[in-house]
Design goal:
Shape: rod-shaped
Number of helices: 2
Order of helices and strands: EEHH
Radius of gyration: 27 Å
Distance between the termini: 83 Å
Structural class: alpha+beta
Low-confidence stretches: none
Length: about 70
Amino acid sequence: MSTRDPCSLQSEPTPAGEQTLVPGVRPITVRDRLNLLMDAPMRPRAAQKPLDIGLFDEAARNQLDLF
């Protein structure tokens, strides 16, 4: 059994420091990250208001005068 040459391993700089890459796995690029963000569902820009009318009015369900 032969040992691998440690100099042949690829590495990449990250905010946490230098990290070694797994052989056969390519590093994640900026393009990959942008594609992931573009494929994600849209999020609202502002907080949504509660729908407290009609069937969805939770306060109206607490009325006991109907019984």
